[in-house]
Design goal:
The structure holds two protein chains of two kinds. By secondary structure, chain A is mostly beta strands. In chain A, the strands form two sheets. In chain A, strands 2, 4, 5, 6, 9, 10 and 11 form a seven-stranded mixed beta sheet that branches. A four-stranded antiparallel beta sheet of chain A has the order 1-3-8-7, with no helix packed on it. Chain A contains no helices and eleven strands. By secondary structure, chain B is mostly beta strands. In chain B, strand 7 and strand 8 form a beta hairpin. Classes of the chains: A mainly beta, B mainly beta. At the A-B interface, strand 5 and strand 10 of A face strand 4, strand 5 and strand 10 of B.
Chain lengths: 120, 107
């Protein structure tokens, strides 16, 4: 079964850091680009960051650029998001998502999400 | 960044209705457009990609059309399980963006 499972969310104070993980199974992980998408409570979907299959292409939303770092370990079938200098507005459910094609494309597989709450 | 604008933001409909949701891009995106359905407490589900290609397993009552800047998602005969929020997404740019969502509610 093709599956993505996020972990690492929780309650964190403003200015602190958190590292999210996404474990992939059921497909050849290193064939596909991967992305992080977040959804604040009661709000719409916001793209956060994406990484190509070989980490050669990486992109970030302006709202997280310079604070978040995406990475992947193809040997471990895992995707990561290092989040530094967290702000209240980063509070959201964070999803990892697999690209349908090998590079750019729609997101055909999503995890269940991990909740990040930034509050003092 | 490419801005995606959906209309309407929400509306009420009845089972059996034909419904259409519109998505407009701030610049041309060819056919690099996807549609998703999201139900409360669930992750988004891919319905359509490349503007008009139905994802495997998605009922044929869903269809998509358009290219360039204007796109539509049509549900030909609304079913009870279709009441949800729908999002469009452009992937013309690596910095992908989503529309703000359209909530389809029961009349």
């Amino acid at each position: 079964e093709v599956q993505l499972v996020e972990s690492g969310g929780g309650l964190v104070q403003p200015g602190r850091s958190l590292r999210l993980s996404c474990a992939a199974s059921g497909f050849t992980f290193d064939d596909y680009a991967m992305h992080w998408v977040r959804q604040a409570p009661g709000k719409g979907l916001e793209w956060v960051s994406g990484i190509s299959w070989n980490s050669g292409s990486i992109g970030y939303a302006d709202s997280v650029k310079g604070r978040f770092t995406i990475s992947r370990d193809n040997a471990k079938n895992s995707l990561y998001l290092q989040m530094n200098s967290l702000r209240a507005e980063d509070t959201a459910l964070y999803y990892c998502a697999k690209v349908l094609g090998s590079t750019v494309g729609a997101f055909d597989i999503w995890g269940q999400g991990t909740m990040v709450t930034v509050s003092s | 960044a490419i801005r995606m604008t959906q209309s309407p933001s929400s509306f009420s409909a009845s089972t059996g209705d034909r419904v259409t949701i519109t998505c407009r891009a701030s610049q041309g995106i060819s056919s690099y457009l996807a549609w998703y359905q999201q139900k409360p407490g669930k992750a988004p589900k891919l319905l359509i990609y490349a503007a008009s290609t139905l994802q495997s397993g998605v009922p044929s009552r869903f269809s998509g059309s358009g290219s360039g800047t204007d796109f539509t998602l049509t549900i030909s005969c609304l079913q009870s399980e279709d009441f949800a929020t729908y999002y469009c997404q452009q992937y013309y740019s690596y910095s992908t963006t989503f529309g703000q969502g359209t909530k389809v509610e029961i009349k």
